[in-house]
Amino acid sequence: xxxxxALLSALLALGLExxxxxxxxxxxxxxDGPRVAARERLDLLWHxxxxxxxxxxxxxxxxxxxxxxxxxxxxxxxxxxxxHRIYRVxxxxxxxxxxxxYVVKLNGKVVFAAEAQTRKPESHRMxxxxxxxDGSAAQTAIAKAILAxxxxxxxxxxxxxxxxxxxxxxRSHFFPVYNSEAIPLMRRVPFLGVLGNHDVPxxxxxxxxAYFAYWSLPLxxxxxKAGEANAAPVTAGVHDAVVAASGAAFPxxxxxxxxxxxxxxxVLDSNVYTDWESPVLKAWLEADLRAARGASWRIVALHHPxxxxxxxxxxxQWMRVLSPLxxxxxxxxxxxxxxxxxxxxxxxRFKPSKxxxxxxxxxxxxxxxxxxxxxxxxxxxGIIHIVTGAGGAELYDPWQTDAKASWQPWTKAFVSxxxxxxxxxxxxxxxxxxxxxxxxxxxxxxxxxx
Length: 450
Ligand SMILES: [Fe+2]
Description:
This protein is an alpha+beta fold. Helix content is 17%, strand content 31%.
């Protein structure tokens, strides 16, 4: 009895200490490791008070617990949150495709323990959704349903945090949902994402665009400098703290690419300040796709869809200008958000008839693969465009689900009256895409083969 009581009080003390130790509990990021490696790495980040503390991280390897490199930190002091530290450690020498136990210690005591899923070399399950953390019940329901799908990694197609991508908003309704005790996702699998129009540096919010400080993703995008064209525009004197806490990530981490299994992902910042027809961005994109020839699948992820049928944001289809380039390099899927519902097109080819202005829909000529049905005909001639923006925020145009006459002729699936997310089950020669609602029910499904 005495032993049990001692154990209980030790656990209670540990729980209290753990609570006191973290402002945001440890979460996994891919870090600057875009390519599959024989020995993998993952970044582990957490937020803590701005005070000294002897933090260490250990990972369980074949020979026992291995001490990781000393954590580093940057301090973010952007009101209204008090100054806090963003700690980061690179977990190293990890076996691919395994679940690796790790512990975080403060002053020699374990204050956090979890298992990290490392990148899988072939078959895997990636979850994708957008328009996410608005603090609603739907956001939490989606997160729970995602946990039930047992993902290997998660990708958010922008509008990561409402309403202004602020540090204070991450603290109140991003991390507490995706990395809670009840929904322990971010401590187990890496989350990736891309900037939406709600994640940019809003002029009146010093803690806006916290993406650059809080996320750790590959730094292999176009070389951009603050204040230059195509970079997220910051206001001097307002965003200085966020920029300082972001280090090399600002403004470069806005676009990047990475591989997961045999899939090459190209992630594009599609906000209006970027001009993807500019030589610097276009050259980067072309080089990135050309280098991905060996991948089994090529996916482009961005916030603003190229092709979509919703009445809301219909004029926002300016990224269509990239379609010929993506087709030329054999892109299979484009995954977007922005429009708060689910849509899937037939495999498409598109020739812009005239250069579009950013902020308007680009007109042009379509070639539609009508034979593909994702069931009996599974080889696509063209790119399938997915809108998966039903991840939490209020849904757009629910009436269009049953109003097929309102769909563009190339739209094949449209669910705008239910929150949902996309499950990609990927094998080297077969990709299954399922759209799933908060109850785990399948709303749509296609199979692609090579
Ligand atoms: Fe958006």
